[in-house]
Give the backbone structure.
Amino acid sequence: MDNKTSYPEPCLEKQLKGHRNGITALYFSPNEQQIASGSLDNSVLLWDLRGTMRSYRFQGHDEAVMDVTFSPSGKYMASASRDKTVRLWVPTVTGSTGMFKAHSQTVRSVQFSSDGTKILTASDDKIVKLWSTDKHKFISSYVGHTNWVRCARISNDGSVIASCSDDKTTRLWSLDSGECIHTYKDQRGHGTYLAWHPSGCYVAVATSQGNVKLYDIRTHNLVQYYSIHNDAVNQVAIHPSGSYILTGSKDGKMKILDLLEGHPIYTLSGHSGSVNAVSFSTSGDYFASAGEDKLVFIWKTNFTEQGNEKENVAQNMSMVPRSASQISKTSSALKGRNQVVKKR
């Protein structure tokens, strides 16, 4: 490979074992010293990443935990469950600090707004809802989806909500007015997860067909399309620089996509079974993956080390990324510590 497209490969640093069933969600604390994981075993585990690898188990949900997140300050965690509730926790031995029934069916996703004052939820009851963090007071509903809502996320500036549903649409909503601004339709698969680009101009949508789509919310154009997995993409995470996307798939693989080059640069394997959750740390120096095998892997990112100039471009988003279609098969493999890293 030439220098332009060669990257230091990510390396697996830690494996965390403690859940009794498949893991559904991961989220780093803002200070990167802890990571929370949610599982089908009805619990949230909070792992200390500072050397001890000790974990605290938070129990209270009656059914599977579908999503977990930290507040921007790191003071609280929130978890969403099949038991139709959202629970708030203090991320210490203190534990539970509150619970509210958020929906009439499974709560699939939960997120704090960037100022920490609001909580966004999405559910199988087809509705997206906004709540106040303080006293968990209901603020508004976003109604229009005609099937389960898999994921809903607020843009960094707090003005727009994006949601994806089994009704094969991804919708943009005005947070304040509650109106649907735009609907992106997919003829084949449905969105399983989505993430905002740090610029606030793009939304990445993972699909049940093994694809990742990047939409420009200003023009509503599909600006990038990656057909990269052999089964559903369960989650996507965007690097804080805005230059890379990390995917986790039901096919047991993860991919790292270079958004400015417009193609995948790595395939990572190591998990047995579906990769259900992926997450970057706040700085982007680390990322985590987890899935059906009940294990959390912590990885050192590394591949950003040669991409500083590129990251500045991505930060400004002054160039529209080139679209990517069918990607050629992997060329070379690097094996190590229970994982395989493949260069594209």
